[in-house]
Amino acid sequence: MVVWLTSLFIKISLYLYVAVIALTHTFELHDHKPFTFSMTAMMIGLSLFMVKTKTELAHLLLHGEIVFLFITELIPATYLLVDWVRVRKTPGQSSTETDNVQH
């Protein structure tokens, strides 16, 4: 039980860290502190109000998993598409320089 709780805490902390860092990079900020408290409060609020009964939890697990997995699989493809568009639209590079860019 202790190992399970510890691993759950580490997993939630990692997700929170990734979300805060992603928002920081999205808004091109150098400091992550403005988002830390608000994201933590939002995570706590969502966890408390997302599911109120066992019936709602069962419904969410049965019907929401497919959408979650679909979105999770689309995220890497979206990053690849955005990277491809950004490389193609970089001004001042010739086509041979664009083809030789290593990621």
Question: Can you describe what's shown?
Answer:
With 103 residues, this protein is mainly α. Helix content is 79%, strand content 0%. It has helices spanning 2-26, 33-49, 54-63, 65-88, 95-99. The termini are far apart. Keywords: Membrane, Transmembrane, Transmembrane helix. The chain crosses the membrane at residues 6-23, 35-51, 57-82.
Strand-residue fraction? under 5%
Helix content: over 70%
Radius of gyration: 19 Å
What is the succession of H and E elements? Answer: HHHHH
* Broad shape: extended
Number of strands: 0
Short description:
The chain is an all-alpha fold and 103 residues long. The chain has 5 helices and no strands.
List the helices and strands and how they pair.
Layout: H1 2-26, H2 33-49, H3 54-63, H4 65-88, H5 95-99
Helix pairs in contact: 1-2
Keyphrases for this structure?
79% helix, transmembrane, transmembrane helix, 2 domains, mainly alpha, 103 residues
